[in-house]
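I am still learning, so can you show me any protein sequence you like together with the matching C-alpha cells, please?
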Amino acid sequence: MGTSPCPRRRQRARPEQGAAYHPGVSAFPVTRLRRFRRTASLRGLVRETRLSLDQFVMPLFVAPEPLANEELPGMARFDLDSLLHEAEVLSESGVRAVLLFGVPAEKDEEATGAWEDDGIVQQALRALRPRFPELVLLWWSTATSTTTEASSCSLVRR
C-alpha cells in the first residue's frame, strides 16, 4: 500500500451527550481565540463599535435651587447659573447634546411647570440656546411626574 498524496483529514469529535457546545463549531467556553487582538491594527479591523463623547447625550436636571447628589457626584440639580457653567464644561470636553429634565418650584394638578413660558426648562432653553448654538438641546416635555402634585405621569382629572 502506498501513501496518499493528500494529508489525512482529522476526524471531528462527536459531542458528548447533553453538551452545550459542539467542539467542531465553537470551543468558546474552553478556548477563547485571541488572534484578532494581538495588535492595535488587528483590533481596529475587527472592532464593531466605536464610542466617542460626541455620540453621548448628557442628562441634566434643572431646578430653581441647586441640589448636590452625594451618592452620584456627577448628577445634581442645577440652577440656571450652574447649568450654564456645566454646559460650558461639557461642550469643551466634547459632549454635543444634553437632555433637560425640569424640577419646578411648585407642583399643581395641571403640570403648568411643564408647559408655561416661565417654566424652569423653558428658562434653561432660553439661557442655553444663544450661548451654546452648537449644543443639541433636548427637552423631555412629557415628564409630568415631576410637575404634578400627585407625581403622576399623566394629568389627573377629578
User: Anything to note?
Assistant: The first strand starts at residue 57 and ends at 62. The chain has a mean pLDDT of 77. Residues 53-146 form a domain with the Rossmann fold fold (CATH 3.40.50).
